[in-house]
Automatic annotation (TrEMBL):
Residues in Response regulatory domain copies: 613-727
SMART domains on file: HATPase_c (SM00387), HisKA (SM00388), REC (SM00448)
TPR repeat ranges, renumbered to this chain: 72-105
Entry protein name: histidine kinase
4-aspartylphosphate PTM positions: D662
Entry keywords, A to Z: Coiled coil, Membrane, Phosphoprotein, Signal, TPR repeat, Transmembrane, Transmembrane helix
Residues of the Histidine kinase domain: 370-590
Taxonomic superkingdom: Bacteria
UniProt catalytic activity: ATP + protein L-histidine = ADP + protein N-phospho-L-histidine
Organism: Flavobacterium caseinilyticum
């Protein structure tokens, strides 16, 4: 053993010396492929020594040529040799090295082959069937990706064999069924023995002795005339088990004897001994490459040391410069201290200013909220009484005074809503909703609502919708409608005897997001280039005269800020006398499953035919009259109380179907009244009827036990819809 090691060491040193004298010749891909093919031929004939020797040369040539595919192929052959020699740990090591190079080369063909071979080792040699079958599954995926049905055939054969080996015939049967189906097309002399043997094993498991015997005999007969002697040996082994199971022990013994003879031939001890020497040489090459890397690192270190001498000299120069800088820094330090003190004082002042600004913002939000509440309450009365007068006195329907009153009230309500909307956006309290909607329905609804406005200026309003846009999208349809309504009404307002077009186009589709481009174009008065940025500022109306257009100047500012919530921007193309084109793009989700879920969850109005008794808790007498009239107009019974305590008292005497609860009341507010009602165990649906903004009170309303919220002034149709839904649920 000592002499062998000495010879090996001398060969290694000689090889190193030769390498230091001359650079190796870079082989061509064709030459390397020829070497790997020869190595495979010797492997198939069980000449492991020759196969490993040629593989060693092929591997070295492939590494020198930086041919990743050839490196992976050489490692596959080396691993296969070790597998045949029963050196399975080494085989796994080299298969893994091969797999790493195949991944670098992105070669799916090699990856499927390597995974199949690793499956063979883990299943049939290491008996780790779960891990082995996983490698087979990986191989199947690569085969299917490449469309390689022949390799799929071989891998399914291996999977069936693995499951049959552990007695799990039911799991292996789908693979057996596959190979039987494609045996004539993809089977050949290398697989026929194994296919017949697996059929014999399955028929034996099913108790079909006649078919099992026929299959085993066919496997043995076909195995005698082919080179795959290992399949023949296993056929004898499985046939022996079958015969033993039948009780034919004599023939079982004979087949077991033949299995041992063939196995002994395949693994000749002399061949394995010679192959081990070749394997040692191959491993020395691996060690040599490691030593070469170490020597290279040493050379790098020597170069680093040479550079370090220069660095020491430079360090001296730098040290002198640092001394000069140190003096400069010392001199500047006093100046910095003084500057830092001033900066610290400035920061304190900025913090105080920031706190004051935040306090002012909170006060502003509270002021806007309070003002909107205080304005909505009398507006509810004005709008409600106007509607009552028109209902009770039909002759006033054509009165210009009544129409002016109704218009003024709605205009004032619109102004309040716009101011509140601006305040919400600025305070980051606006949250977009995700609801399913039909974009055609929304746009046509906007068109219908603006027809009167179009006719007043003798304009034509046209709508074009791209047919490629999905029927249902998911997003905030209310905010979208608000944006388009503002832009279109603005276009109609500044266009006379002209045309306004709404175009909805599908810009692009990214996964489940459909990006929709909205275009609003008019041929009206146009906007000067200098004014195009100003129109999106609050309370700005470019070129407005005292007798000109109605409006607050908030509409386009709201549009710009709402588009910001959609992560979109608006572009404008306009000139004086040539009209205006406005464009923006919004992405909406298209998800069939999610859309169906949202549609299925939409509550259906199930109006009850039974008499409904409503309790109204309201302290404002005008609002009491309006709410009572609205409810009784729908043929509901209505009772009214002035405060929360009166509500608790009447609930002890009388039963109600629903309660309409005002929030801002004296003595006891609507939240506290609701809590007391719930503590009594009364589960009557309660709807908050309030002038507060919904977002401000939703959390407290839910915690108090309120079922829904309606903001004054309200739409009576919406009120009755909510009442009917709550009653039907209750």
């Amino acid at each position: 053993m000592y002499q062998i090691r000495t010879v090996v060491l001398l060969l290694f040193l000689l090889n190193s010396f030769n390498n230091s004298i001359a650079q190796p010749k870079i082989s061509s891909k064709k030459e390397i492929a020829k070497l790997t093919d020869n190595a495979t031929v010797y492997l198939k004939s069980a000449n492991f020594e020759k196969s490993l020797g040629i593989s060693k040369v092929a591997l070295r040539s492939a590494i020198d040529a930086n041919d990743l595919n050839a490196v992976a192929t050489s490692y596959i052959t080396i691993a296969a040799n070790y597998a045949e020699m029963a050196e399975f740990e080494k085989a796994i090591f080299f298969y893994n090295k091969s797999l790493s190079y195949a991944k670098k080369a992105a070669n799916d063909t090699l990856k499927k082959k390597i995974n199949n071979n690793l499956g063979n080792i883990y299943c049939f040699e290491k008996k780790q069937y779960a891990r082995g079958i996983q490698f087979y599954e990986n191989s199947l995926q690569y085969s299917q990706k490449l469309g390689d049905t022949s390799q799929t055939f071989v891998t399914n054969l291996n999977i069936a064999w693995a499951y049959f080996d552990i007695g799990n015939f039911e799991k292996g049967y789908p693979s057996l069924k596959f190979i039987n189906k494609y045996n004539k097309k993809y089977g050949d002399e290398t697989t026929i023995t194994a296919v017949n043997m697996l059929n014999g094993m399955y028929h034996s498991y099913k108790g079909n002795h006649k078919l099992a015997t026929s299959s085993f005999l066919n496997a043995i007969q076909s195995g005698k005339g082919e080179n795959e002697k290992s399949d023949l040996s296993f056929s004898h082994l499985e046939y022996s088990k079958f015969l033993s199971k039948k009780g034919d022990h004599k023939n079982a013994y004979e087949n077991l004897l033949r299995y041992n003879i063939i196995t002994e031939e395949l693994y000749n001890k002399e061949k394995l001994k010679k192959a081990n020497v070749a394997g040692i040489n191959l491993e020395l090459d691996e060690y040599k490459r490691q030593i070469d890397r170490i020597e290279t690192e040493k050379e790098v270190q020597l170069q680093s040391l040479r550079k370090s001498r220069i660095i020491v000299m430079l360090f001296g120069v730098v040290f002198v410069i640092l001394l000069l800088l140190l003096y400069t820094l010392f001199k500047n330090n006093n100046f910095k201290k003084k500057a830092n003190a001033e900066l610290s004082q400035t920061n304190k002042e900025l913090i105080i200013a920031k706190e004051k600004a935040e306090e002012a913002s909170i006060v502003k939000s509270q002021f806007v909220s309070t003002i909107s509440h205080e304005l909505r309450t009398p507006l509810y009365g004005v709008i409600g009484i106007t509607n009552m007068l028109l209902d009770e006195h039909k002759e006033l329907a054509g009165s210009p005074y009544m129409n002016s009153l109704k218009f003024s009230a709605k205009y004032l309500l619109s102004l309040v809503n716009d101011i509140l909307q601006i305040n919400k956006i600025e305070d980051n309290r606006l949250v977009l909703e995700n609801l399913t909607f039909n974009i055609s329905d929304e746009i046509n609804m906007i068109k219908n609502s603006l027809i009167f406005m179009a006719k007043s200026n003798n304009n034509i309003l046209r709508v074009t919708i791209d047919p490629d846009i999905p029927e249902y999208l998911i997003g905030d349809k209310l905010r979208l409608s608000q944006i388009i309504m503002n832009l279109v009404s603005n276009a109609l307002k500044f266009t006379k005897n002209g045309e306004v077009q709404i175009r909805i186009l599908l810009a692009k589709v990214d996964c489940r997001t459909n990006f929709i481009e909205f275009q609003i174009q008019d041929n009206g008065i146009g906007i000067a280039a200098a004014d195009q940025e100003k129109i999106f500022e609050k309370f700005v109306q470019v070129g407005r005269k005292e007798t000109d257009y109605q409006g607050t100047g908030l509409g386009l500012s709201i549009v710009k800020q709402l588009l910001g919530q959609f992560k979109s921007e608006i572009t404008i193309d306009s000139a004086i006398g040539k009209g205006t084109l406005l464009k923006f793009v919004i992405g909406f989700e298209f998800n069939t499953e999610k859309t169906n879920e949202i549609i299925n969850n939409i509550q259906v109005d199930m109006t009850s035919t039974q008499p409904i008794n409503v309790l109204v808790v309201e302290d404002n007498h005008i609002n009491q009259i309006i709410t009572r009239k609205t409810i009784e107009k729908n043929n509901y019974k209505c009772s009214v109380v002035d405060n929360g305590y009166a509500a608790l008292e009447i609930l002890e005497k009388e039963n109600f179907d629903v309660i309409l609860m005002d929030i801002n009341m004296p003595l006891i507010n609507g939240f506290e009244t609701t809590r007391k009602i719930r503590l009594k165990g009364i589960d009557i649906p309660i709807v908050a009827l309030t002038a507060f903004d919904k977002a401000e009170i939703t959390e407290e309303a839910l915690s108090a036990g309120i079922n829904d919220i309606i903001i004054k002034p309200f739409d009576s149709i919406k009120l009755f819809e909510i009442i009917n839904i709550l009653i039907s649920k209750n």
